[in-house]
Structure formats: C-alpha cells, structure tokens
Amino acid sequence: MMMMMMMMMMMMMMMMMMMMMMMMMMMMMMMMMMMMMMMMMMMMMMMMMMMMMMMMMMMMMMMMMMMMMMMMMMMMMMMMMMMMMMMMMMMMMMMMMMMMMMMMMMMMMMMMMMMMMMMMMMMMMMMMMMMMMMMMMMMMMMMMMMMMMMMMMMMMMMMMMMMMMMMMMMMMMMMMMMMMMMMMMMMMMMMMMMMMMMMMMMMMMMMMMMMMMMMMMMMMMMMMMMMMMMMMMMMMMMMMMMMMMMMMMMMMMMMMMMMMMMMMMMMMMMMMHLHMFISYKVFYILLVIVLLVIHSIIFDTFVQIFIHLTLK
To answer: Do 88 and 81 form a contact (C-beta atoms < 8 A)?
Structure first.
C-alpha cells in the first residue's frame, strides 16, 4: 500500500513537473512572440519617425521661406515705424531738452537696428541675385547648346537637300538630252517625208506637162544617180569617220537636189503660163541656161567636198 502511495505520489509529481515545463515553454514562446512584435513595432516606429523627419524637414524648408518673407515685411514695417519715430522726435525736441537726449539715445539704437536690418537685407538680396544669375547662366548654356544642335541639324539637312537637287538636275539634264535627240530624229524623219510628198506632187504635175520637160527631168535624175554612185565609191575607199561625214553630205545633197527640182518645177509652171506670149525657142534657151547654171553649182560644191575630204 505504501508503495502504491509512493508511486502515486511520484506520478503526480511527474505530472506536475511536466505541466510546469509545458507552461514554461508556453511562456517562453509567448515572450518570444512578444519580443518579435515589439521589434516589429519598433521598426515601424522608426520608419514612421524617419518619414516624419523627412516631412519635418520639408516643412522646415517651407517655413524658412515663409520666415524670410515675413522678415522682409517686418523690415519694411520697421522702416515705416522709424520714419514715424523720427517725426515724433522732432516734435518732442521742440518741447523739451531732457527728452531730446533720451530720444537721441533711442534713435541711435534704432538706427543701429535699422542698419543691421538693412545689411541683412542686402546680404539676402545678394544671395538671391547670385542664385538667379547662376540659374540664368545655366539656362543660357542649355539654350546655346540646343541652338547649336539645331544649327547642325539644319546644316546637315541643307547638305542633303543640295545633294538631292544636284542629282535631280543631272537626271533632268540627261532627260533633256534624250528628248532633244528624239526630237531631232523626228524632225529628220518629217523632213524626209515632206520631201517625198513633194516629189510625188511634182511628179503628178509633171505628168501633165509636155515631153521635153520630162526629158529634162530624166537627165536630172541621171545626174543624181551618177553622183550617188561616185559617193558610194568614195565611201568604200574611206574609213568609218569619212563614211559618216559622207552620209551627212549625201543627205544635204539630196535635199539640195530636191529643192532644185522644186524650184525648177515652179519655174516650169511659170513658163507654162508665159508660153502664150514668148516663142518656144526663147523658152527653151532660157530653160537650158537655168539648168546649166544649177548643175554647174551642184557639181562644183561636190568637187570641193571631195577635195576637202581627201586632203583630210
């Protein structure tokens, strides 16, 4: 029994101990938690404080500014007051001497104060001015830089534009040249066509005239053919350059011949109208003379050209 009791007791004790331990543990935990919380709170507080400080600083700055303003105002007020005081003093002085002395003292004091204030003001003004100047300078510098940049950009743009313009001009020139060439070609073609047409017309007219004139025409044609043959021969002998020149000459000759033909036809037409009044013999003589002159001219020019080319 006793043993039992003892056991029980022991057990109880153990339990108690355990409980105690648990409690302790719990307490500890709680404490820890509390500490943590505290720490957190502290941190928060610190942060808040910092923020507050910052805010305070800002406020202070603002306040300072305000104070400055106030000071200025005060100074002004003071000045006014001084003036008033001066006036008063003057008045008093007239009344009595004793007072005057005192007033003098006071005035001195006031003056001193005023002077001090003035000095302060001046200093402040100077500082402000300096700041302003600095700011202005900075601004100016910035502006200058900007301007320079702008100028550079403009210059670049101008250069580019110039280049473009040049290119365009070149292109235009090329185009113009091409156009000119084309025009020339067209003109030549037109001329040729016109000549052909004229020839055709003349031929038609000629059909209506008499045989003698036909014969003359034939002779002319023959002459032309001969000349062309001669030309061809020369070309074969000459080089390429000569050939080109000859071609040109030939063209000229052809034109000339055609012109002559036209002229002749015109003349013939005229003569046809005149044949009523002039006898045939005279008419023939005249015709022959004209023909001779024309042919002599043509032949002479041809010979000259040939000589020139050969000499070359």
So the answer is: no
Taking every pair of Cα atoms in the chain, the longest distance, rounded to a whole number of angstroms, is 197
pLDDT, one tens digit per residue, over 171-184 is: 777 777 777 777 77
Write down the pLDDT at residue 34: 92
pLDDT digits (tens, 9 = 90+) for 3-15: 888 888 888 888 8
Q: What count of other Cβ atoms lies within 10 Å of the Cβ of residue 265?
A: 19
Task: Report the C-alpha gap between 277 and 73 in whole angstroms.
Answer: 131
Q: 3-class SS at 1?
A: coil
Q: Which residue has the higher pLDDT, 3 or 155?
A: 3
**What b-and-e string marks burial along 275-302, b requiring 16 or more CB atoms within 10 Å of the CB?**
eeeeeeeebeeebeebbeebeeebeeeb
CB 306 within 8 Å of CB 234? yes
pLDDT of residue 61: 86
Helix axes 211-237, 97-208, angle to 10 degrees: 120
**Is 70 exceeded by the pLDDT of residue 291?**
yes
Half-sphere exposure of residue 166: CA atoms within 13 angstroms, side-chain side: 6
- pLDDT band, very low/low/confident/very high, at 288 (cuts 50, 70, 90): confident
Q: Residue holding tokens 């002559």? A: 260
The DSSP result for 43-79, as a single string, is: HHHHHHHHHHHHHHHHHHHHHHHHHHHHHHHHHHHHH
- Please report the pLDDT score of residue 207 as a whole number: 52
| 268/9 Cα distance (integer angstroms) | 173
**Cβ distance 246 to 309 under 8 Å?**
yes
**Terminal Cα-to-Cα distance of the chain (whole angstroms):** 164
Residues in the chain: 312
- CA 229 to CA 235: how far, in whole Å? 10
Radius of gyration of the chain (CA): 64
